[in-house]
Target: LacI family DNA-binding transcriptional regulator
Amino acid sequence: MSIKEVANEAGVSTATVSNVINRPDVVAAATRDHVQAVIDSLGYVPNSAARHLSSGRSTAVGLVLFGVRNPFFADIARGAEDVLQQAGHLVVMCSTDLDTAREEDYLDRLAQQRIRSLLITPVHVSDAWLARLRERGLSSVLIHNSADHPDVCSVAVDDALGGEQAATHLLARGHQSITFVTGPMNMRSPSDRYQGCLRAILRSGRTEQALRVVEVDDFTIEQGRRAGEQVLAATDPVTAVFCANDLLALGVMQAAFRGGKRIPEDMAIVGYDDIESVVTAGVPMTTVHVGGYDLGRAAAQLLVEEERAPEAHRHQRRMFSPRLVERSST
Model:
């Protein structure tokens, strides 16, 4: 079924049919209703691929995230999708697993599909990386603290504040030192969380040596268990652990249980993100709440705003404040 057949059946031009499909507000109500009735009776479905070829762009939006195995990023995706679906966009989701080569491959593939709008949690951000995005024709909103890059829209959480809240909470309970468990520290979010934790340590009158770091390869439960084993093997007993995300914290908790530790009597644990599963853990976990759904919505809203009024649009950086949620693990 083609648009010409619809036009012939309705007795109108193909341009009128196209307007009914794409710009119904410019067509007289009677004509619009007549053409729509013909479309329905013939079962005509517009060819999106053809429209993409003629317009030079797709209506789909790329959503490139670290990994949807983490419920926090699933929440981001859900928030973004709710906004984009209402705006008439299809969401194409890609998972990078913190692999820069995989990220680059996805960005190339999205550009080849004529996708021009992108929401992304980038592994690393630099001026050169942003320039490559623009060369691909991709208009982007970063889900990332892009304080050093004001020429792009971004949404982020004040991770330094979140780290400070976690450390302040542990210090107030009498812990003299804190072990920070994290995935790769060369990424912005865990680095900010570490800096906030250190800020609280130094403000308490302790030295930098009161903050130890255990760095593993990823932000997963499996890597958390590995980190937990390192924590248990430390020469000096560890009484307080702050983890860069909840999955790591759940892994540390599992290792502590296996090692015969009581939580929080022998070891207090604080996570980060406040995913649903920390409430149902063996010991409900204290964590820093970050609204992933709200982050996703805010990022998508910025993208839609720029799409609808590109000339009037001004790049914005929206920062969300985290909050500590106290439960039984501390």
User: Anything to note?
Assistant: The chain has twelve helices and twelve strands. The chain has a mean pLDDT of 93. Residues 292-308 form the longest helix (17 residues).
